[in-house]
Structure formats: structure tokens, C-alpha cells
Amino acid sequence: SMKSDGDDGNASKVDFTSFLNFGTDSNEGLAGFQGNFSTLNVTTLGAQTGGVGRIQEAIDLAASGATIHIAAGTYNENVNVDKSVTLDGAGTADTFVGGTGNLFTVTADDVSFEDMNLQMLNASQGIRVNSAVDNLQVDNVRFSDISTYGIEIHNDAVLTNLSVTNSFFVGTSGTGIRMATTAVAAGIYVDNTDFNGLSSAINEASKSDATGGHLSDLQVTNSQIRNITNVGIYAEELRDSTFSDNTFTDNFRDIVLNNKYNGSGTDFGNIFITDNDFSGADKPTIQLNSSGVP
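Request: output the structure for the sequence above.
Response:
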């Protein structure tokens, strides 16, 4: 039996997470047991010792390209995802990550979030990018009680290939996906995703000089944008983008394309809005501004 502090079988006092998925020695030619860190498991069971949280500990141990299975339960921590991993929860009704500050900060390429619920009531940002990152995948993730930003593409970010699919952004204020005024992104793909009750679903802002951020290749398809109190999709420096087969319902404004600045040198244009269903907006469905053009 398991013993801890004199208690037989009391696993709550033993730190056994994260644990390997395979019990075989990955290199019998080396002395000692060589674990296979391509798949790790995280659980809320047992004690947690040391200075980092359970998910962070798994990332620190994982091999690049590993899959980390996050079991059902609630995890309150701030996680730095600094290597290529897949973070796979047990489902949006089972695996919860919450707390204050930024729940996840991504600094590595090829990172995936799947099947979890990010509880945003007291958090600043759910997933934050503030560096050069490529291939960030978000699938079946629920961002609950957003009051600030679900996904934040921050000041120094250069983000390529963000995919958000089968996900939910829900709150009473805040923004689902936000780009800061100096952030740059190319390739944001949103499909079959629900934005509900926010100030804005997607917001891309810029500046009046060459440091201004810009976005190209924003594809929003098969999604719902509803009960938005400000603007569903707002952009200031955008090109080569498509919004198609979406449903916009009961928003204050649905789409605002505001060519407010041109300091970054990005030509605003080549934007297609096709086969969408619009209803119940307080203001004109599509608003085009060109105050930044001579």
C-alpha cells in the first residue's frame, strides 16, 4: 500500500502528477530508467510540491511536440507555454483553468489548446501572445465570463497562423480576440465559433505611424456573433480577408471597417463579406470609414 505521513493508501499527500503515459524504458542503453516524455498526464489528485503549478510542471518536463492530457478538475495557475505542445483537456464541462492575470502565455510555435474551459472572471487574458509565434491552434475551448480579452495578440506580437475552431467566447464585456495597436498578424482563421455578450468579438486596432499594427488574411466562417454591445468585427488596418456564412444577431454594430490609419504602409482592401445573415443590429450592418486616406 501507499504510505505518506503514516497513512496507508492516502494518495492525497503524494505528489505524482504529472505522470508518464508509457512505463517502458525509452533507452535501455543508458543507466537508470529513461522515461518517454512524449505524452504526459496532469491531474488535480495528490499533492503538488515545488514552486510551479501542475500544468506548468508538465510543460517543463515534456518533450517538444508532446501531448499533455489535462484531466477533469480545476487548475488555478499562470502557465508559460515555451515549447511546442498540445494541451488537451477532458472537455469544456470538465477541465477548468482559472485564476488571475494571464492564464496562458504562449512563446513557442506549434502550440495547441483543446477541450478545456478558461474561466475568465478574474483573469486579465486567457491566451496571450507577445512575441513571434507561428501556428497557434485553439479547438473546442470555452472562454467563460470574459471581462477583458479571451485571446490577446499583444504589443510585440508577430503572429502567423492562428486557428480558432469549434470554440465559445462568452462574457458581459471584453473582447473575444484582440490585437493591440502595434501587433502584427497574418492568417487568423475562425470557424464554427460562437461570440456572445461581449463588447467586441474581434478587434484589430492600429496607430498613426509606422509602428502601427496590421492584419492580413482574417477568415471568419460559419460562426455566430450575437448580443455584442459595441462592434462584432472591428478593424483599422486589414486586407485580404473574408467573412462568410456567419450569423450576426442583436448586435449594436455588426462590422466596422475603419481605415483610420495608413502609417504602417498596409493597403486596406480586398475584403469579401458574403453569404452572412444579419438581424437586429442597432446601427447600420456594415460601416465603412476612410478617415486615414488623403
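The radius of gyration is 21 Å.
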